[in-house]
Specification:
The complex is a heterodimer of chains A (62) and B (538). With 62 residues, chain A is an all-alpha fold. Chain A has a domain of 35 residues. Helices cover 69% and strands 0% of the residues of chain A. Chain A contains three helices and no strands. Chain A is globular and about 35 Å long. The relative contact order of chain A is 0.16. In chain B, 28% of the residues lie in helices and 28% in strands. In chain B, strands 1, 2, 8, 9, 10, 11, 17 and 18 form an eight-stranded mixed β-sheet that branches. In chain B, strands 6-5-13-14-15-12-16-19 form an eight-stranded mixed β-sheet. Chain B has a five-stranded mixed β-sheet with strand order 20-28-27-23-26, covered by helices on one side. Classes of the chains: A mainly alpha (62), B alpha+beta (538).
Chain lengths: 62, 538
C-alpha cells in the first residue's frame, strides 16, 4: 500500500498556486466549483489507491 | 518629532556653476539623494568618477520607509564602506511567525548561512541608511573624491541629444542650466525625470489600502517578524509587526479599498486600531503614519539614451518581501561598474544595454514574487480566498501546506544564468556558483572572507592552482586571488565552489557576480570572457 505523501512535494509551490488561481480567474462560483470537482477527480485517478484516497479524505475532513 | 528629520544634511549653497559664463558640464549627474542615488554616488566615486548629486530636499526621507535590508544589500554596502555601521545599528532577526485567526500556523527561520560575513537580514530605518551614506560621502570627499551633493536643487527641465543631456535646475536662487554625459534618475516611484520625458510606467494597482505606522514603545515582543492573516483585531484582513532599532516597531494593517484615507490617518482613528492589536495597557507613541496602495509596475526600458533609471523610478513592487530598496541597491551594483568603464572609455556604451537586460529580469522576478504575495495576503476573489484559507487551515498540522503560505517571499538576488554576457560554464561545479550568480561568500583564510577579498575590478579566483600570467584586457587589470580548498581547509569554499572537482578558475565581475568558470587556467578563454563582460562581443 502506498502511503499518502504529506511532506512538501511541489518544487515550485508559488508557481503551482499561481497557476491554480489563474485557472479560476474570471469564473463564476458555479464554474469554479465544477472546475474544482473535475480537478479532484483527475488527481484522485492519478493516485488510484483507495486506501491512500481514504487517508486524504479523512485529513481534509478534520 | 525625531530630531533626525529636521537636520539639513547637505544644505543649499550657491555653486560656481550658477555664476559661470558657460554652462558647466558634468560626466555623471545623479537625480535624487535617497538610498539608491547615494549608493550610486559612492560606487562611482570609488571608481574615480566625478559625481554631481541633486535633490529637491536637504534632509533624510521622512518616516522609516524601507526597513528590511537583505544579505546581498549588506554585501554591496560592505563594498561601499558602510555595512559595519548598518550592522552595528540594525536589528538582526531570523524568526518569522505566521498567525491565522488567533493561532500560530507556521514559523520560518532565516538562519544566517555559515561562513557568510553578512547576516540574512537586518531591520533598520531608511533614514539611518541615508545618514550613513552621506557620512561616507563626506569621508570620500575628505579623501579627495569629487562628489558634490546639492540640496534644495530640483530638476525643472531635461532634454538630451546623442552627445549630451541638458538639465535645468531650480534653486532658492533661481534657475540655472548644466550639461552632462550621463544622468542616473533615482528620483523614486513618482520620478519627475520619467514624467518630463513622458515615459511609460505600466503595471497593476492592487485595490487595497494599508496603514503603515511606526510606534515607539517599551514592549516585550521578541525580535521576530509576526504576520497575521485574519486576526481577531483586524477581522478579514492582515497585519504585520516588525522591530526596528531605538524601540521603534513597524506595524502594517490592511484597511480595505473603500476608506477615507485622510480620516484613517488621524491619530484618533489610528490609536484604537493599534490598541486593539497591542493591548489596551501598552503605552506607545506614534512616530510616523502613512497610508498607501500597492502597485507592481515597471518601465519597459531602464535605459533611455544617456538617461538611466534605477530603483523605484524604474520599478515598483508591493512591500511584502522587502524587494524595493534591496532591488534598487542591486541596480546600482549592476550599473555603476559598467558606467565607470564606459566613462573611462574602457568599454563601449552598448555595455549599458546589459544593465537594462539584467535589471529588467531582476525587476520582473521581484514583481512576480511580490504580485503572488499580494494575491495571497489580499485575495482578490472568493475562490482565491477559499484556497488561501484552506492552505492556512492545513498549514497548522500539515507540513506539505507550509511552502504554500505566502506572507512575502523575502528578497534574494536573482540568478541571471548563462546568457550573452555570462559564461561559459566549463566546470562541472556547484550550481550556487554557476555563471550569472552573485558569488556566495566563504571563508578563504583565518578571519578572511571571500567577498571582502575581491578587487574593485575583475578578479580571477584560482582554487588549488596558481597561474602566473599577468592579464590586462581592454585596459582592465585582472587581479588574481589564489586560494586553497580541501576537506580540512576552507570547507565552505570547497562546498560552494568546487563540489567534487579538484580545482577551478572563476572569473568574477566588479559587481561580485560570476562571469565564467573553468576547470583549468586558459588565458585565451579568460581574455575572451572579459571582453564579453565588457560588452565587446555583443
Amino acid at each position: 500500500m502506498t502511503r499518502l505523501n504529506l511532506d512538501p512535494n511541489i518544487k515550485n509551490a508559488d508557481g503551482f498556486y499561481a497557476r491554480l488561481l489563474a485557472a479560476h480567474e474570471g469564473l463564476s462560483k458555479a464554474d469554479s466549483d465544477s472546475l474544482n470537482a473535475r480537478l479532484i477527480l483527475i488527481l484522485a485517478n492519478h493516485i488510484g489507491d483507495l486506501a491512500t484516497l481514504e487517508e486524504a479524505i479523512s485529513i481534509a475532513e478534520r | 518629532m525625531n530630531e533626525i528629520f529636521k537636520k539639513p544634511l547637505y544644505p543649499y549653497r550657491r555653486s560656481t556653476d550658477q555664476d559661470g559664463i558657460y554652462q558647466a558640464h558634468h560626466p555623471v549627474v545623479i537625480i535624487g539623494a535617497g538610498p539608491v542615488g547615494l549608493c550610486a554616488a559612492i560606487d562611482l566615486a570609488q571608481r574615480g568618477i566625478k559625481i554631481l548629486v541633486i535633490d529637491e530636499n536637504d534632509k533624510v526621507s521622512f518616516g522609516s520607509r524601507a526597513i528590511c535590508f537583505a544579505k546581498r544589500t549588506l554585501e554591496i554596502c560592505d563594498r561601499l564602506g558602510i555595512s559595519d555601521k548598518l550592522i552595528a545599528k540594525g536589528v538582526q532577526w531570523n524568526l518569522g511567525k505566521v498567525f491565522f485567526d488567533d493561532r500560530q500556523v507556521y514559523e520560518f527561520n532565516l538562519l544566517s548561512e555559515d561562513a557568510h560575513r553578512q547576516p540574512a537580514f537586518i531591520n533598520l530605518q531608511q533614514y539611518y541608511l541615508e545618514v550613513y551614506l552621506v557620512e561616507r560621502i563626506l569621508e570620500l570627499q575628505n579623501a579627495g573624491a569629487k562628489i558634490d551633493i546639492r540640496g534644495e536643487t530640483s530638476l525643472s527641465e531635461i532634454n538630451q541629444t546623442s552627445k549630451s543631456v541638458q538639465l535645468g535646475l531650480d534653486t532658492p536662487d533661481g534657475l540655472y542650466e548644466i550639461t552632462a554625459d550621463w544622468v542616473i534618475a533615482c528620483d523614486g516611484a513618482n520620478s519627475p525625470t520619467r514624467a518630463m520625458l513622458g515615459l511609460d510606467f505600466a503595471g497593476r494597482v492592487f485595490e487595497d489600502n494599508f496603514l503603515i505606522a511606526d510606534v515607539r514603545m517599551e514592549a516585550d515582543f521578541p525580535t521576530e517578524r509576526w504576520f497575521w492573516f485574519d486576526p481577531p483585531f483586524n477581522k478579514g484582513k492582515s497585519a504585520l509587526l516588525h522591530k526596528q532599532p531605538d524601540g521603534v516597531w513597524r506595524i502594517d494593517l490592511q484597511l480595505g479599498w473603500n476608506i477615507d484615507k485622510k480620516e484613517e490617518k488621524k491619530p484618533k482613528n489610528v490609536i484604537p486600531r493599534l490598541k486593539a492589536m497591542l493591548g489596551e495597557d501598552v503605552n506607545f507613541e506614534l512616530e510616523w503614519v502613512s497610508i498607501y496602495t500597492f502597485e507592481c509596475r515597471r518601465m519597459e526600458d531602464f535605459l533611455h539614451g544617456r538617461i538611466i533609471f534605477a530603483g523605484d523610478s524604474a520599478h515598483q513592487v508591493s512591500p511584502f518581501g522587502a524587494r524595493g530598496a534591496n532591488s534598487g541597491i542591486q541596480d546600482v551594483d549592476n550599473l555603476c561598474w559598467k558606467l565607470a568603464e564606459v566613462v573611462c572609455k574602457r568599454a563601449p556604451a552598448s555595455l549599458l544595454q546589459t544593465y537594462n537586460i539584467e535589471r529588467v529580469l531582476g525587476a520582473d522576478e521581484n514583481i512576480l514574487n511580490s504580485t503572488r504575495s499580494t494575491e495571497f495576503i489580499t485575495p482578490k476573489s472568493g475562490i482565491s480566498r477559499l484556497f488561501r484559507d484552506a492552505v492556512l487551515e492545513l498549514a497548522e498540522n500539515q507540513t506539505f501546506a507550509r511552502p504554500l503560505v505566502n506572507s512575502g517571499r523575502l528578497s534574494l538576488p536573482i540568478q541571471y544564468g548563462v546568457n550573452r554576457t555570462f559564461g561559459p560554464d566549463n566546470l562541472d561545479g556547484p550550481k550556487v556558483a554557476s555563471p550569472g550568480s552573485p558569488c556566495p561568500d566563504a571563508i578563504i583564510a583565518p578571519e578572511t572572507f571571500l567577498l571582502e577579498s575581491l578587487s574593485q575590478g575583475f578578479t580571477l579566483l584560482n582554487i588549488n592552482q596558481v597561474p602566473k600570467v599577468h592579464i590586462i584586457e581592454c585596459g582592465s587589470t585582472l587581479t588574481h586571488l589564489n586560494v586553497k580548498a580541501s576537506p580540512d581547509e576552507n570547507t565552505f569554499l570547497l562546498k560552494r565552489y568546487l563540489g567534487d572537482q579538484k580545482m577551478a578558475i572563476y572569473l568574477i565581475r566588479p559587481d561580485q557576480h560570476i562571469a565564467a568558470r573553468w576547470a583549468k587556467f586558459d588565458e585565451t578563454a579568460i581574455r575572451n570572457s572579459i571582453r564579453t563582460s565588457l560588452g565587446y562581443n555583443g
